[in-house]
Design brief:
420 residues; alpha/beta; binds uridine-diphosphate-N-acetylglucosamine; single chain; 24 strands; 25% strand; 14 helices
Length: 420
């Protein structure tokens, strides 16, 4: 199995280019099911999750030509509507095919994704909303079986909780429904905005993009014709590299990034003492060797993202005072704490709050990646730890970070991928 070996203590320098956003590419790939015409997607990140979802499309009968950052997809001949356990268990986001399959074909079977390392992650809100749109839903043998033989009907959906995947599934389902759907308390993440814009550019009437109320006039099961779409930059990858600059006290430049999408991370780094030069789609970070402590509460966009919580915790280990980090979205998203403590940090957990106390130095050790973003926190800590850090189970990182070690090498880090 592969692992990453980092010799800590190197200063970083230079620039790297941010890849396309995995979390935007996934719903957009799922949305291609709403069409029976070819569509070209560009700026896809070259990561395992994208390959997994494209493989699912092929299993359903779609045609896919995929080459690194570009995919040509044609879902004209889909002949199966069953998303099997083998794929969904590899990647929870495969649940995003539920809405589009049901809307286009009037039936589908999708394996229940189950829990994952960061928490239970139920899909009850997705299912309740589809029922409100007229679907009959049954859970049997580990599969969600959904039927709407005469198509879905537009409905008023009020989400009890803001859900990114739930909003995406219902936006896609509503697009081919009969009548108008209004989603109240929808998520507002940039990834949802891109999905809605792609659907709008296919000629669908959709209002309230980027707000908490989205209204969609369905096409009554008429498949769409999408424009070619370039995936937006990955705001979490961008934030992770800025954290790499901050933790190693290095000035680096990240290119092809949307500063608006990472405003909350920029604000937190600024309050820790870092400063920035933002020119068009490039950001240069000017770090500080006296990082101030921070308080963070994770919340929905445009608030501070849960997907950046672990990376900021790594940076906070190097601050000159106590930081407090509260995780409000996922109940078990602190598994990096014990691994960071193996590297010498002093982090205390009580419920969903972590207190990060200052330490003079981190020391290299063997640590284990537990989920995607937790893994990148261990990489960040390894960059500044004294000695060698080996990070095991990096298949988590490969799911979501395009060429992580290549990009860090380009910035001057001493990092290697090894096998044992
Ligand atoms: C997406 C992101 C993930 C990010 C998360 C929150 C993708 C592929 N993944 O995940 O990286 O961390 O948003 O920003 O885009 N919930 C329910 N019932 C539901 C659905 C959700 O209770 O039916 C709860 C979840 O358990 C969680 C909260 O709602 O506590 C938010 O989850 P959600 O926004 O749905 O996250 P995902 O779409 O799974």
């Amino acid at each position: 199995m592969d692992y990453l070996q980092i010799q800590g203590g190197k200063k970083l320098h230079g620039s790297i280019t941010i890849s396309g956003a995995k979390n935007s590419a996934l719903p957009i790939i799922a949305a291609t099911i709403l069409s029976d015409k070819p569509v070209k997607l560009t700026n896809l990140p070259d990561v395992v999750d994208i390959r997994t979802l494209l493989k699912l499309l092929v299993m359903l009968g779609g045609e896919v030509e995929h080459n690194g950052t570009v995919a040509l997809i044609n879902n004209k001949n889909i002949n199966s509507t069953k998303a099997v356990y083998e794929i969904v268990s590899q990647m929870r986001a495969s649940i995003l095919v539920l809405g589009p399959l049901l809307a286009r074909f009037g039936e589908c079977e999708v394996s229940l994704p189950g829990g994952c390392a960061i928490g239970q992650r139920p899909i009850d809100l997705h299912l309740r909303a589809l029922e409100a749109m007229g679907a009959n839903i049954e859970i049997k043998g580990g599969y969600v079986r959904a039927e709407a033989p005469n198509g879905l009907k537009g409905a008023k959906i009020v989400f009890d909780k803001i859900t990114v995947g739930g909003t995406e599934n219902i936006v896609m389902a509503a697009t081919l429904a009969h009548g108008t759907t209004t989603i109240i308390n929808s998520a507002k993440e940039p990834e949802i905005v891109q999905l809605c814009e792609m659907i709008r550019d296919a000629g669908v009437e959709i209002d309230g993009i980027g707000t908490s109320t989205i209204t969609i006039k369905g096409t009554a099961q008429k498949p769409l014709k999408f424009q070619d779409t370039e995936i937006i930059p990955d705001r979490i990858e961008a934030g992770t590299y800025l954290c790499a600059g901050a933790i190693t006290n290095s000035s680096i430049t990240i290119k092809k990034v949307n500063a608006v999408h990472i405003q909350s991370s920029l604000d937190k780094l600024e309050s820790m003492g870092c400063s920035f030069d933002i020119k068009g789609d490039e950001i240069t970070i000017y770090p500080t060797n006296r990082l101030r402590p921070i308080n963070i509460v994770t919340t929905e966009y445009p608030g501070f993202p849960t997907d950046m919580q672990a990376q900021f915790m790594a940076v906070a280990t190097m601050a000159i005072g106590d930081s407090l980090i509260e995780e409000r979205l996922f109940e078990n998203r602190f598994m990096h704490v014990s691994e960071l403590n193996r590297l010498g940090s002093d982090i205390w957990l009580k419920g969903n709050v972590a207190a990060v106390r200052p330490v003079a130095q981190l020391y290299g050790a063997d640590v284990m990646a537990t989920d995607l973003r937790a893994s990148s926190a261990l990489v960040l800590a390894g960059l500044v730890a004294n000695g060698v850090t080996n990070i095991h189970r990096i298949y988590h990182l490969d799911r979501g970070y395009d060429n992580l070690e290549g990009k860090l090498l380009a910035l001057g880090a001493d990092i290697k991928r090894l096998s044992h």
